[in-house]
Automatic annotation (TrEMBL):
Gene symbol of the encoding locus: pcr1
GO molecular function, one term: protochlorophyllide reductase activity
Matches recorded under NCBIfam families: LPOR
Main localization category: plastid
Keyword Transit peptide: yes
Protein name: NADPH-protochlorophyllide oxidoreductase
Keyword Oxidoreductase annotated: yes
An annotated GO BP: photosynthesis
EC number(s) per entry: 1.3.1.33
């Protein structure tokens, strides 16, 4: 993945290079995003991903002729929007016409194909390169996004990898165990850097969302299926999560367990959301949220699992646990957390009941421990070079 970061620099992405105010005769509320088709020359593929995106003037809900206020189109960045939940949410949001979606993906061509395949309209999205397995790539993404000149109204930290059968760790470009490196540390840096951009946005409801999961919460049946999530005293993380010279597991265990590493990373995601809330909600007004979207048993998340698991998991979740949700339904749920006017409360972990109604769910004791969240924050800052 790190290699891919080098081969697919962000310049390969087709992004609106400049966001300039074009005053239309009848409506001053819209910006026209000037477009640039960038060719994926080295791959001899011409992919048209960014077209005119009507992003209205940052600064405002504008008074329309009938006296009603209209809110400009929002800009949402979704990581890992090339498949599964991220793609479904990107589609759901783009289809409303109220959102321009920036699909932050490690595989540009896959994302372009996925967006087309999902029927997303030209002009409703922009694809930009982001490989969360490289902190340099995260920084490059932030630079590219800023150069594109779009406002940032919502950020969804959605991408993840799950390596359930791995018995030995793999590492990010910066040398951190891959599951925690991608799912937590890459997103931690991204969220911290983009917080500045979100603070500049005038959008009425700005939201920063980080995906959590039931399997990281030991107060549920699903969270008690071994291996159980648990960060211990974070000694493995504090030592650098490097494996060769210590542990690749957050809790410092000697042996590596890929399934546990994923669940641990989800605890980190949920703790980070709450720490962001404590540190920044009052000061910035930004809503911080996490969610469990339901068991989307058909996504690429399970690509590394054994074939028998991939065959039986969807019917097991559909007919036995009844926790199954389709990708489309999960996309609507995530889209709700991004834009539903009733989900503005900050610091919340959202879930949905059997009638698909959202409710504030309880996190496990560990996933809501403020001391642990603070410690995780401080160690993570050091690992990503912010402290
Ligand atoms: P998918 O595998 O379908 O999607 C994951 C996305 O993350 C893909 O787009 C993938 O890119 C991307 N990704 C992986 N590694 C990187 C990287 N290094 N840099 C950038 N992007 C990367 O899984 P889901 O849609 O199921 O998962 C989405 C989120 O939902 C995750 O956070 C997961 O933890 C959460 N979740 C999922 C549940 C489920 O039942 N599926 C349940 C609860 C939570 P690519 O397409 O290139 O592989
Ligand atoms: Mg689980 C009670 C219901 C329930 C729910 C909602 C899930 C969700 N799971 C439940 C129960 C069970 N699971 C039971 C009883 C078993 C034992 C047979 C079981 C097993 C199981 C496995 C082996 N479940 C799994 C796995 C995985 O590899 C998945 C995982 O842990 O990924 C990290 C998984 C999941 N079960 C879920 C959900 C949502 C997942 C995967 C996605 C995630 O947490 O991100």
């Amino acid at each position: 993945m790190a290699l891919q970061a080098a081969l697919l620099p962000s310049t390969l992405s087709s992004v609106p290079k400049k966001c300039s105010i074009a005053v239309a005769a009848k409506d001053t509320a819209f910006l026209s995003v000037s477009q640039k088709k960038v060719q994926a020359a080295s791959l001899s593929v011409r992919t048209r991903v960014a077209t005119t995106a009507p992003v209205a003037t940052p600064g405002s809900s504008t008074a329309a002729k009938d006296g009603k206020k209209t809110v400009r189109q929002g800009v949402v960045v979704i990581t890992g929007a090339s498949s599964g939940l991220g793609l479904a949410a990107a589609k759901a949001l783009a289809e409303t016409g109220k959102w321009h979606v920036v699909m932050a993906c490690r595989d540009f061509l896959k994302a372009a194909k996925a967006a087309k395949g999902a029927g997303m309209a030209d002009g409703s999205y922009t694809i930009m390169h982001l490989d969360l397995a490289s902190l340099d790539s995260v920084r490059q993404f932030v630079d590219s996004f800023r150069r594109a000149g779009m406002p940032l109204d919502s950020l969804v930290c959605n991408a993840a990898i799950y390596r359930p059968t791995a018995r030995t760790p793999t590492f990010t470009a910066d040398g951190y165990e891959m599951s925690v490196g991608v799912n937590h540390l890459g997103h931690f840096l991204l969220a911290r850097l983009l917080l500045d951009d979100m603070q500049k946005s005038d959008y009425p409801s700005r939201r920063l969302i980080i995906l959590g999961s039931i399997t990281g919460n030991t107060n549920t049946l699903a969270g008690n299926i071994p291996p159980k999530a648990g960060l211990g005293d974070l000694r493995g993380l504090a030592a650098g999560l490097r494996g060769q010279n210590g542990s690749a597991m957050i809790d410092g265990s000697e042996s590596f367990d890929g399934a546990k590493a994923y669940k641990d990373s989800k605890i980190c995601n949920m703790l980070t959301m709450q720490e962001l809330h404590r540190r920044y909600h009052e000061e910035t007004g930004i809503t911080f949220a996490s969610l469990y979207p339901g068991c989307i048993a058909t996504t690429g998340l399970f690509r590394e699992h054994i074939p028998l698991f991939r065959l039986l998991f969807p019917p097991f979740q559909k007919f036995v646990t009844k926790g199954f949700v389709s990708e489309a339904e999960s996309g609507k749920r995530l889209a709700q957390v991004v834009s539903d006017p009733s989900l503005t409360k900050s610091g919340v972990y959202w879930s949905w009941n059997k009638d698909s109604a959202s409710f504030e769910n309880q996190l496990s004791q560990e996933a809501s421990d403020p001391e642990k969240a603070k410690k995780l924050w401080e160690i993570s800052e050091k690992l990503v070079g912010l402290a």
